[in-house]
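Morning run. Coffee first, then this:
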Amino acid sequence: MSEIQGKKGREKTAVPMPEQKPEERILNFNEVPYGYTEEQAIREAQRCYLCVAEKARCIPTCPVGINIPKFIGEIAKGDFQAAVQTVMHDNLLPAICGRVCPQEEQCQLKCIAGVKGEPIFIGRLERFIADWYALQNKEEHRLEPAPGAPKVAVIGSGPAGLTCAADLARIGYDVTVFEALHEPGGVLTYGIPEFRLPKAIIRREVENIECLGVKLYMNAIVGKLFTIEELMNEKGFQAVFIGTGAGLPIIVDIPGKNLKGVYTANEFLTRINLMKAYLFPKYPTPLMLGRHVVVMGGGNVAMDSARTALRMGAEKVTILYRRTEKEMPARVEEVHHAKEEGIDLQVLVNPIRLLGDKDGKLTTVESRRMELGAPDSSGRPRPIDIPGSEFQLEVDNFVFAIGQGPNPVLAQSTPGLKVDKWGRIIVDPETRATSIPGVFSGGDITGGATVITAMGDGRVAARSIDHYLKEKVTAQVISDR
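And here it is:
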């Protein structure tokens, strides 16, 4: 059988996705892309070569292993219900992944259609099928774990935790998710803006997971309310998965970092996304921004911060990044949208000092021009200072968006849990097992970087937990003989 099946002469150009015009969307927090219509989805799906699963280059690059050619082939035939079943066999967060996962660096990067044309827009099709399913208004019946089913605790309701919880519930375990915040979703909820990932979609997909019998407890900080040891020794949980993410902001130690008007992206986005500052005064979370906002960083969080500041009323938003646009870790789509919206992207620039007035209010960002040198440990060219190139910008607000690290609360309250020098939990990459028997971990807390890789970690951990608990039961039976 040929690796590539289907008709010749198919379209080489992808079907564009309709979206809000830049001049309109900067005035609201509505989602930017509208999504495919049924006709558009079928047209895009019909571009697919429908490679056989064993040879499809897209499947191995999907961290959760979706049978991509199968679900796309089902869309191409108009069998949307079958496509839903194929996708949700491996991914219970398809509407989220279809919106925020970097498919262009994973499944789409390897797409055979991309050799002589544009790759199939797999993420857009995944989003379409998830949204189609949501519109069917099908009543979901909540399942319950069997009486006496082994109990597993999942700490954190981000993509890693939700995936692990769902997979374990499907196997038959009694799963409880503990979330520190008052809403589930982790970084999906507090970190990603409404215009990129509407909160109603997160709630919808979390509800799908709850229907599997998963229980969620909000405002539960493990490490403060109770420890992992207490969960396992006093509350009857036989295994634990840690998926607490990376919520500790990284701040460059430069003069003026404590001036009024300076934010971390973590605080900035959390106040807006989770605490709904964009709906002030309906929600009592004011966020005072001035005319000019400067964001330091080049990742998706920097783009989210900059585009959010624009929607919050800033007249001008500038992004300062110390390498070139080519080295930016942000998705190409996010950079494109930011530039379309009029955000000023200044590359090869590094802030070195923040200046304020007599009242301690930020007034000026002083930066230095950079040039690229030899590659550093990340494989990217190292930025090098250009002496005497300093310049200043008059600003009202400054946002540090240069990364986040693990919150140390859980590790500090868990003796025997090994972490690296950055505070990330050390795990076996094959099983996600930590240094404590019965405790597994995945996602950003172990060094992951994207929603879909965190989900992949959660899936691996669920399989490992199932194996661990079955081995434990077998060992107990043998010892009782």
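The domain at 151-247+406-480 is CATH 3.50.50.60 (FAD/NAD(P)-binding domain). Good start to the day.
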